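WARN no homologs supplied; continuing
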Amino acid sequence: MAEPVLVITGPTASGKSALAVAVANCLGGEVVSADSRQVYRGMDIGTAKPTSAEREGIPHHGFDQVSPTERYSAGRFARDARQWIAEIRERGRVPIFAGGTGFYLRALTQPLFEEPDMGEIERSRLRARLGGRDVAELRRWVRILEPASPALDAARRGGGGRQRLLRAIEVAILTGRPLGWWQRNMPAREAGVPARWVVLEWPRDELYRRIDRRVSDMVRAGWVDEVRRLVANGFGAESPGVTATGYGDILTHVEGRMALDEALEQTRRATRAYARRQLTWLRNQLPTDALRLRADRPFDERVENTVRHWKECRA
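OK structure emitted
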């Protein structure tokens, strides 16, 4: 059987990065980000990338892969992640994934099909046409193109975000076949990477308080200025990076179309909604042997239990 990787996941603001660093120190590991927003260069504060000090000298992978104006797919993440895993193991260390982007983790551990080539120029043009449409309109497009679309199924389960709907539209229009056809008829290029799962679980009220505090901390750390710098480098409403929670709201403020307090309140609401979708995925999509940790327990206890969970599969 293939060697497993350790995956530490949970909703946004649950403390995944800090736990991953501490566990890496115990196991001799390196951390791979499984966060679809931390791949963007220059988007540091609003995506909660751990600082150099917070990384404590532990090598990290998966940050700063592309410009916020470029697209980075789950399929590309899975390919890159396999390379990082191989390199980490060559150094005799443990690959530890930390993040809550479910479609990234699924692409690595349960790949469904080989994504068709759609052409970056054509994709960019289509994205530009669809950029101003809200989620409700995108769902109508998907219902027309593929009434039984997996993207609509995900929406009914609480996981149908804008990116998933855009992808369903792109595949149907640019390939001439709907997403479901590709999933049924195109086998995955490689088998899934086996994983040992750890899930951080907070009481809902405390998780929401952590989210609210994090948004306030991001602003104090200079999030608004970060978005201004991105705008100066071509970042705008059509950029893939703007789908990162909160960036669209801060961009609207920077453009003078929304007061900062209103932008931050919208960001808090959107982040809580995103956390709820993550919780739905984490309840329904993980194996029964996943270790579910109470994140309000002492930090050292969480580290000890995670290390023990990993070592049990190595015994």
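The beta strands are 5-9, 29-33, 60-61, 94-98, 195-201, 291-294.
OK
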